[in-house]
Request: fold
Amino acid sequence: MKKVNNKLLTLLGFAAKAGKLSYGMDMSQLAVKTGKSFLVIAACDVSEKSKKEITFHTNNKSVPFIVLDGVNIETVSKAVGRKCGILSVNDKSFAEAIRGGYANDQ
Reply:
């Protein structure tokens, strides 16, 4: 599990460098609403209220939503270079790679 998490975090870092992420609840919701988001990710220690709220938006637009088991806000923030617990992946290729790596971990 640790190895796959490292792969996911590396992919998130690449997506951040490429400018393909929206950071935080508000920007992630906007990306979902405007059709830019291909995947929304939350750290495991994001509040239940936030998870419920973003789930509502992702379900309405059929955008996949993943909570990263065992990966906290601090770890996600280090990977992407900004403090955030929820982010949107706004690139289809990065989203598919992240989902593929995460699915293999389950």
